[in-house]
């Protein structure tokens, strides 16, 4: 879906440099607003992270991403709790299933177990945490912290590739690999 929208928005016959110029001319506000809103509909975030620094510089990209992710997570939680939950409960009422209720002592563990698996779309993870009854503070802390660790690594990688800075590229990759090692350790520790 992301590729189709990007193809539709990307001016026909332009190079990467022309497309990046187009993003720069649009400015950071629409770019980071799109990062805040589109992932709620299932769009991937990694392309936003990789293009942010070449378009707007490293510091602005990290700050813009931090704010956009905060808005995205708050919006996802609100949508799940206020709109999706009622719809899912009505749907499940016709079956023998119910939405799971998580005990308070397991909030952190369940939030980590939902957020940590790679390959699951982030929007689905965020909706599942909210629907499982994870309190907003725990949901937000887990989601924002882990997502920002990955985002900063990806932003550094995007900036480094554009600038041909191989040391920065390696540093960004090491940050991402370090996050995956941490995720594996957390899954082993709390996944029991």
Q: Can you put this structure into words, describing what you see?
A:
The chain has one domain (2-190). It contains 9 helices and no strands. It has helices spanning 2-9, 16-26, 28-37, 46-56, 58-93, 107-115, 122-131, 136-163, 166-190. The radius of gyration is 18 Å and the shape is globular.
Distance between the termini: 35 Å
Shape estimate:
globular
Mean pLDDT: 83
Backbone structural class: mainly alpha
Number of helices: 9
Sheet with the most strands, sense and barrel status: none
Task: Briefly characterize the structure.
It is built from 9 helices and no strands. The model has no long low-confidence stretch (mean pLDDT 83).
Task: List descriptors.
192 residues; mainly alpha
Please specify the SSE layout and strand pairing.
Elements: H1 2-9, H2 16-26, H3 28-37, H4 46-56, H5 58-93, H6 107-115, H7 122-131, H8 136-163, H9 166-190
Helix pairs in contact: 2-4, 3-4, 3-5, 4-5, 4-8, 5-7, 5-8, 6-7, 6-8, 8-9
């Amino acid at each position: 879906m992301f590729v189709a929208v990007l193809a539709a928005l990307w001016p026909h016959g332009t190079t990467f440099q022309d497309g990046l110029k187009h993003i720069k001319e649009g400015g950071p506000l629409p770019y980071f607003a799109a990062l805040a809103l589109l992932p709620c509909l299932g769009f991937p975030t990694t392309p936003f992270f990789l293009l942010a620094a070449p378009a707007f510089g490293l510091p602005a990209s990290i700050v813009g991403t931090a704010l956009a992710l905060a808005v995205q997570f708050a919006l996802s939680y609100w949508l799940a709790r206020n709109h999706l939950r009622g719809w899912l409960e009505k749907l499940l009422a016709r079956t023998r299933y119910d939405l799971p209720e998580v005990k308070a002592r397991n909030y952190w563990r369940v939030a980590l177990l939902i957020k940590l698996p790679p390959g699951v779309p982030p929007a689905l993870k965020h909706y599942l945490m909210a629907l499982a009854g994870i309190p907003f503070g725990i949901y937000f802390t887990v989601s924002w912290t882990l997502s920002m660790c990955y985002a900063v690594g990806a932003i550094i990688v995007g900036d480094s590739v554009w600038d041909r800075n191989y040391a920065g590229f390696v540093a960004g990759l090491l940050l991402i690999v370090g996050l995956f090692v941490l995720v594996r350790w957390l899954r082993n520790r709390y996944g029991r």
